[in-house]
Amino acid sequence: MSVKINALELENVKRIKAVKIDPKQNGLTIVGGDNNQGKTSVLDSIAWALGGDKNKPSNAAREGSTIPPVLKVTLSNGIIVERKGKNSSLKVTDPSGKKAGQNLLNSFIEQLALDLPKFMNKTNKEKAEVLLNIIGVGEQLAVYQKQENELYQERLTVGRIADQKAKFAKEQPFFEDAPKDLVSPQDLINQQQAILAQNGENQRKREKVTQYEYQVKTLTDEVARYEQMLNQKKEELNKATYDLSVAKTDALDLLDQSTDELEKNLAEIEETNRKVRANLDKEKAEEEAKGYKSQYDNLTNQIEDVRKQKYDLLNNADLPLPELSIEDNELTYKGKKWDSMSGSDQLRVSTAIVRKLNPDCGFVLLDKLEQMDLRTLTEFNTWLEQEGLQAIATRVSTGDECSVIIEDGYVKENVSSQSAQPVNTQPTWKAGEF
């Protein structure tokens, strides 16, 4: 059972002259009043009484009083805490006979419950660290967060390269009429030389025809001039005539090939190869872009897996509030970070976390609840009652929402409130005595 405050009696502390309050066990007990009447002095007194001399106000004694401060806090576990006398010495009375003193109080009193603004003023990262330490997943979540950050940075780099490669590939020209492979100048030269050699052979054969024609003509003339040598020359004529017939037959179907196309290709080879290289560069750039896009998608899947592990880790943790989580090393509630939360949500989150820090401490002190309207106060009170939490708060107000009203260091008479239980409003004890 968590420890709560059953009764509070104060005298001559800061602005307090004499005050007695019996807080509600669950829900809000609002100490109201105008400014400079002693409301905050009530909370400071509780913090001093239960939290030790480190919480002692710098000017603890009421100004103008010759009587030293007197504080008495009765707790729900039966322990009575008192500070009185010249040195405001601490006295802790434990009915169970346990060791008394500040160490006993520290065993069930949460320091942040006595000074909630100390938690609320922490950085977003510090608040998140407090929560992670409470639920015991801080170390594992840090591993996941590191993995996610590393994967995110790697994916960011890959994504930028992929975008650059895709943009570069898109900007490269492409020529539909270019061949697939680079053209070799030597191949074209070899083809040209082969054709020229063939044409040379054809020319030699044509020259043979001319040669034999000349020989036939010469011999015919000789036959005419040298009849006496007719028989001999006829034989030569017959042979030459036969050779002429063979030569004509060989030359009849000869067809010279043109080198115009090869000469054109040789002239255009550099332009052709430029186009081929451009197409090859474009294909390479597109392949690289696809590769980096695939890496990017793979890293995206890894990031999602890590985020799911983080979500599962937090979702299965024993969090102080539903919809309370950690995102990017910052506390979030209902999807909002601290600076985007309403003032009431900030108080609710802080109260829940501080309560979780030490479940044995069943109360929390809240100063300056002016930021809450009456509807929000009612909702906050209902939540506290459902959680079994006791909250003692101050508010600059004299309205019906106040459980007690402090006026000039005393509890004002005839205060009624829907949320308050009857309190002893006017001190009936003598100064310096309870």
UniProtKB/TrEMBL annotation:
A GO molecular-function descriptor: ATP hydrolysis activity
Any one biological process term the GO annotation gives: double-strand break repair
Family matches, as Gene3D superfamilies: P-loop containing nucleotide triphosphate hydrolases
Name used for this protein in its record: Chromosome segregation protein SMC
Pfam annotation, one family: AAA_23
Domain Rad50/SbcC-type AAA: 8-306
Keyword tRNA processing attached: no
Record keywords, A-Z: Coiled coil
Keyword Coiled coil: yes
InterPro entries the UniProt entry points to: P-loop_NTPase (IPR027417), Rad50/SbcC_AAA (IPR038729)
Annotated signal peptide: none
Superkingdom field: Bacteria
UniProt organism field: Faecalibacillus faecis
Coiled coil spans: 202-316
